[in-house]
Specification:
193 residues, mainly beta, Thrombin, subunit H, seven-stranded mixed beta sheet, four-stranded antiparallel beta sheet, 1 helix, 17 strands
């Protein structure tokens, strides 16, 4: 498995929508057995990674240049690791199909505490319920939502850039440059500007 860092370049299609494509600027080794669910750059040439699958899930600190797992915190066999985020010196990981997660110390991956997400119903109560549209048509199957520089990004086999104000698709990020002799699922993609 290869970790790829990319830069964006853009062009305008026939419908006058912005289409962003990528230019691969570097590749790094990555554990091919890792079922990556969450990945973030922690600075100092380290990645933090949440892996999934029952009996295989973990949180890892990985050297970006070598792909070597520096610290690994295995999860219980009954947990399936999902998304991961960094807040100050804490890593917050969620568990698939459970309203729960864990908080870890980013320096040694020791578990600080477990979480139950009672707050999710409060968050859902204050969010708007927008229909995402592109050129007047409803966009379905949005997945892996991220908030990036004032936009909501969603994965639907390409990345839709969505206005947080009204749910209109601002443009698309397409990734054909990642296809090669291997499956497109063999890559982990991180973007830089």
């Amino acid at each position: 498995m290869i970790l790829i860092f990319c830069k964006f370049f853009s062009f305008v299609n026939e419908q006058r929508s912005t289409i962003l494509r990528i230019l691969v600027v570097n590749e790094f080794p990555h554990d091919p057995k890792a079922f990556t669910q969450g990945l973030l750059y922690g600075g100092d040439d380290f990645l933090y990674e949440s892996t999934g699958l029952y009996k295989e899930s973990s949180v890892r600190k990985v050297d970006i240049k070598t792909g070597k797992v520096e610290i690994l915190r295995k999860m219980s066999d009954s947990h399936f690791g999902e998304g991961l985020t960094l807040l100050d010196d804490r890593l917050i990981q969620v568990i698939w199909l459970e309203p729960a997660g864990f908080i870890y110390d980013r320096h040694n991956l020791s578990r600080v505490c477990a979480l139950l997400f009672f707050v999710l119903s409060f968050i859902n109560a204050v969010l708007r319920n927008d229909v995402v549209r592109y050129e007047g048509h409803e966009v379905h199957n949005l997945n892996e939502l991220e908030y990036v520089n004032g936009e909501v990004w969603a994965d639907i086999c390409q990345i839709a850039r969505i206005s947080q104000k009204d749910g209109i698709v601002l443009g698309w990020i397409i990734l054909p440059e990642l296809r090669s002799d291997t499956s497109p699922w063999s890559y982990i993609v991180s973007f830089s500007s």
